[in-house]
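dude i think i finally got it to work??
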Amino acid sequence: MKHITKLLLAGSTALFASAAAAQQTHIRVAMQLEPPHLDPTSAAAQAIDAVVYSNIFEGLTRFMSDGSVVPGLAESWEISEDGLTYTFHLRDGVTFHDGTTMDAEDVKFSLDRARAEDSANAQKALFTSIAEVTVIDPLTVELTLSAPNGSLLFNLAWGDAVIVAPESIEDIATNPIGTGAFMFSNWVQGDRIDIARNPDYWGTPANLETATFRFISDPTAAFASVMAEDVDVFTGFPAPENLPQFEADPRFQVLVGNTEGETILAMNNQRAPFDNVLVRQAVAHAIDRQAVIDGAMYGLGTPIGTHFAPHHPDYVDLTGISQYDPERSRELLAEAGFADGFDTTLKLPPPSYARRGGEIIAAQLRAVGINAEIENQEWAQWLESTFRGYDFGLTIVSHTEPMDIGIYANPEYYFQYDNAELQELMATLDVTSDPAARSEMLAEAQTIIAEDYVNGYLFELAFPTVARAGIEGLWLNQPTSAIDLTGVTWP
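look at this
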């Protein structure tokens, strides 16, 4: 009997050890782009949010994977009858990763910093309706608005609105200290970022103990790294032509979701000849968007005719306004005084949709007489010279921020579109809460920018993820740029 008991105990121990070994507590996640830094409140690079959103930093509200907005660091709130006062009640017992308490003073600091006159926040417009932030007590903060804003709770869920502490702000770009389920550990620039589970997290602890984000920009190297199982997950996989091979391999799972990424051929509306609507219209008609989708994305992507996500209920299909018509494009160029065409620049950031799509678009433009000289840029260069410096004629980029048509009301945004009618419309939209009225205004805004040919509207970016079989909890869709690991399990 003793021998049998020992055998049973030995067997149980072996099974337990085997189960423990099978439980993965570390995950290696690859992405194509490396963040320029790790402060989501002072740059437009989506790669920053991809790493830090929810994992390291949190806001008063947050996006879930289905796009819904739920409580974050604010557990509840009240809105005054006139819509001008929002009173947020903060969660008790929340600490930053350095052990300091997160309270109403930190909320005031974060929002005042974001909306300050000298703010470097890339989405400063999100906060323009906030007239004053008042600390009521350590767990209560009041936002007074200059006018009602039906999008405020949505706006506060953006990565640009996360709560930071004044004590850690000086080093936030390289040593981010937030309140999230993971803590920043290490950054080997050009290679990886490491994060570790926050043992003092206020909410449900992460299942993973550690995670590593690796940066692999080359599509061929991306394919090799996944096939060799050097990485466990590759989000935004840059070589869609390889997806069928992964789908046929039982070692992997392929997830293809949608994004908020309106991929556009942006035109510098304040630089000749793109300050002429006839030229912008000619460019739009020169583009065969389906050829771009098929050639650059191997069919992954939904054609768009305006700056709005097709899966949104208020989307209006305006692709017919800028349908592919090279003959019409040549006529418009002649009418604009460019019968012999013209030369311009096409600045391309690193993503494969831009680099691959840029080659196709340059050829299409060349066919109507527009010589677009391609310049490949790294993200830091693109952000500095193209996005902030306005030094471009054309560029290709995917705008992954949610519901961001409001950027067209900002004449200082990088494509520099200045339309008083649209600005007034968007200001009215901000103070409108009636759903039917908002839908009408959103349809009107989409139509204005489509008919003014502000940019060349290409496609809504799909989001393919290749992961090892058995990994669960990854986001399928991208309502905001995020590789949220807080609910990921790997049994």
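The CA atoms of residues 61 and 72 lie 4 Å apart.
im so relieved honestly
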